[in-house]
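WARN retry 2 of 3 for item q-0093 after timeout on previous attempt; input resubmitted unchanged.
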Amino acid sequence: MPKRGPKPKDPNKPPPRNTRGPRPEPTALKVLKGNPGKRALNEHEPMPRDANLVIPEELDEVGALTWREMSGELSRLGLLKGVDVIAFRSYCEAVSQWVWATKEIRKRGLLHKRKDGVIAISPLVKLQRHADETMRRYAHEFGLTPSARSGIRGAIDDDGTGRVQVLLGLKKNG
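OK item q-0093 returned
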C-alpha cells in the first residue's frame, strides 16, 4: 500500500488567498493606542460624519440598553461614525440574542430530549455561541475587548480636547 501523507507543495501554484495578515485597524484606534507600530498613519482615510445616536427602533430592550450605554462613549472616542451605525446596531442585536439565549438555557437546561428519545445539546447553545462570536467580532472592531484596547491611552486631555480629533485634524489644539 502506498504511503499516505501530505501532498508535496506545487511551486507553480499561487499562495492561498486571504493570507494578508491581521485586518488593518481604523486610524482613530491606532491613534488611541499611540501608533505602536510607528508606521505612517493614513492621512487620506475617509472621515465620515459623526453618528446619529438615536436608538434604532428595531432594537429590543436589551439592544437599546446596550446602545444607550456604549454609543456615546464610542462616538466621543471617534470610534462610532455615521457609517458605522449599522455595524454597531448588529453588535447591539448580537448582545440581545446572547442574553436571550443564555436566559433560555438557564430555564430549559443545556440538554434536551429529541423526538427520537436521544438526549442532545440544546439548539439554544448553538444560537448562544453564534451570538457570542458575532458579539466578539464586532466588539473587537469597536475596541471593546481587552486585547483591542490594551495599548489605548487616554483620548481626552485635561482641557477636554479630544486627542484623536486633534491628531486626525478634526479639531485644533489649543
